[in-house]
Write a structure and sequence with these properties.
The protein has about 400 residues and is an alpha/beta fold. The chain is built from 11 helices and 13 strands. The C terminus is likely disordered. α4 crosses α5. The termini are far apart. Helices cover about 40% and strands about 15% of the residues. Strands 1-7-6-5-4-2-3 form a 7-stranded mixed sheet, with helices on both faces. The radius of gyration is 23 Å and the shape is globular. It folds into 2 domains: about 250 residues, Type I PLP-dependent aspartate aminotransferase-like (Major domain) (Aspartate Aminotransferase, domain 2); about 100 residues, Aspartate Aminotransferase, domain 1. Bound molecules: pyridoxal-5'-phosphate. The site of pyridoxal-5'-phosphate has 13 residues, from α4.
Length: about 400
């Protein structure tokens, strides 16, 4: 495409955009299982208005737009409260979980260099950790060392103990991890780090806005947050179960004055004045900060609890429904709303293909072979239909291919 010689009228453009958009996944039908976290029409309209209100501002300079600065402080404080961060904690908003993780790795790397003289840093993360850690390691010059998992798909702390060493700059655990929805043994892993003055990051990008509410609903939630000694940073995505539009995450340090300072980039050797930044980005969109602030205050504890109950009930129904289908099972013991399922009897990928034909968008995983999904509040409406189609897909497949099934 070339830049048009003359501008195109708005109506024409919008019509073209709508036509193109019609070819994308129709997530409003509830058949998309990750990426989108819809929380109903009231939240949708609030998000649209909050975004609109801050469409043009720039969050780079906190002194020009003090209202934005305060909203960022408020979002961090509300999130830190959910995660039981101590009074001395501090943090920032970022564009997403990946940026939060990159900033946590950067802070840990600089801390290890400064306090322990580590010049060839390593990052110790379970094999199930999000690719954002591998990305951060590549960008920031750390060697990624992978910790193996046990039969329940949780990081093996004994294996981690054998791998931690003088070069380790950061140890990581997930709460929960993306592939299986299980929580790593955070207390054991964090203790390994703390004993040696090493930073520890809990990646609760997915869990931060759901696990605290499941705990309040009386569900068994393994320890994962700042109540665990040795946890130095956490990442928490408001644009996942915080139900914000995209571009909103937080990174929180246990100690603002000590640990958070390693996240800061500061520069004054140019004619343009002092330049200080806690983020990867320079110019930063203001709308995600405003939207995060608005949705958290709009829902409040009561709103999040109500949505958490819905997500829990739907997740439970799906998990029990899948386990009840002969030949299928959910892998591990997922703690919330993210899980994957496989089969010892059937080719699970072929079953995934049949589900595709019915319009269900399930992600594929390997090692072990599995179909993966993530439940949002709106899935309550489609859980039964999903299980019905899944039973049918297994029946069809079982008749035609059951005899030479591939074992995973
Ligand atoms: C989504 C996710 C991330 C990365 O977040 P983005 O917002 O996609 O950059 C990191 N860790 C886990 C466990 C996640 O689910």
């Amino acid at each position: 495409m070339e830049l048009p010689k003359q501008g195109i009228p708005k109506d024409e453009l919008l019509a073209e955009m709508k036509a193109r958009k019609a070819q994308d996944d129709d997530w409003r039908a509830g058949k998309t299982w990750s990426l989108i976290y819809p929380a109903g029409p009231e939240v949708d309209s609030l998000l649209a208005e909050a975004n609109q209100l801050y469409l043009y501002e720039n969050a780079l300079n906190p002194f020009r737009f003090p209202s934005l600065r305060q909203m960022e402080v408020d979002v961090v404080a509300m999130t830190a409260g959910l995660l039981h961060a101590p009074q001395a904690a501090g943090g920032c908003m970022t564009s997403g979980g990946t940026e939060s993780i990159i900033m946590a790795v950067k802070a840990a790397r600089n801390r290890a260099r400064e306090e322990r003289g580590v010049t060839e840093p390593q990052l110790l993360a379970p094999v199930t950790a999000h690719p954002a850690f591998a990305k951060a390691a590549e960008y920031l010059g750390l060697e990624l060392v992978q910790v193996p998992i046990d039969g329940d798909f949780r990081a093996d702390p004994e294996a981690a103990a054998a791998l931690v060493g003088d070069r380790t700059a950061l140890v990581v655990g997930s709460a929960p991890n993306y592939p299986f929805g299980v929580v790593d043994p955070i207390p054991e892993l964090a203790a390994l780090a703390a004993e040696r003055g090493i930073s520890f990051h809990t990646d609760s990008c997915l869990g931060s806005f759901l696990l605290p509410f499941l705990e309040r609903l009386g569900e068994p939630v393994p320890p994962f947050d700042f109540r665990v000694p040795g946890v130095t940073t956490m990442s928490a995505d408001v644009h996942k179960y915080g139900y914000c539009t995209k571009g909103a995450s937080t990174v929180i340090h246990r100690d603002e004055r000590h640990l958070k300072q390693y996240q800061l980039f500061f520069y004054d050797r140019w004619p343009g004045g002092l330049y200080a930044s806690f983020a990867m980005a320079g110019a930063r969109p203001a709308a995600p900060i405003a939207a995060a602030w608005a949705v958290m205050r709009f829902l409040g504890e009561e709103g999040y609890l109500k949505l958490a109950r819905r997500v829990r009930d739907t997740s439970r129904a799906l998990r029990e429904g899948i386990d009840a289908i002969d030949g299928l099972h959910v892998w591990g013991k997922p703690v919330m709303s993210v899980m994957s399922f496989g089969s010892e009897k059937y080719d699970i990928m072929a079953i995934g293909d049949v589900m595709d034909d019915h319009g269900w968008q399930l992600d594929r995983q390997h090692g072990p072979d599995a179909l993966h999904f993530m439940v949002s509040p709106e899935h309550a409406e489609v859980a039964e239909a999903f299980l019905g189609d899944l039973r049918e897909a297994v029946d069809q497949h079982g008749e035609s291919r059951g005899k030479d099934a591939r074992y995973s």
